[in-house]
C-alpha cells in the first residue's frame, strides 16, 4: 500500500497543481465559469494529501534542503510576500468577496428598510422569510438578528428574499 501511495503522490501533486494553477489564473483574471471558485478551493485542499505523501516518501532527501541557504531564503521570501496580504487586509470578521460583504451589510438592516430595495412590502418580505423558517418578530429588527436566531444559513435567507 505504501508503495502504491508513494507511486501516485507526485503524479497527483502535478495534476492537482495544474488544476489549481489554471483555476487560480482564471479567478485572478475573472474569466471562466463560476465553478472555478469551488474547484480551486476544494481541489487545492485535496492537494494537501499527495503533498504530505510526497514529503513522507522523500523526507530524507528533503531534509538536506533545510541545511542549505536556498530553502531558508525561499521560505523567508515566501512569508514576506504573503505578509502584506494579511497586514493590509484589515481586521478579521465577516466580509469576504465584495458581493458577500454587500449582502452582510444589507442584512444588518430591518425588513422595513430592505423591502423597498426588493420591490416588496415589509409584510411580504417577512412572509418570505417566515416561509423559509426565519421568523421576523418586528419589522424594525435587523434581518441578521432574525436569521441568527432561526439557526438557518444566511444563504437560505437571501434565497428566500430574492425568490418568487
TrEMBL record:
Transmembrane segments: 12-30, 42-59, 71-90
Name of the featured protein: DUF4405 domain-containing protein
Keyword tags: Membrane, Transmembrane, Transmembrane helix
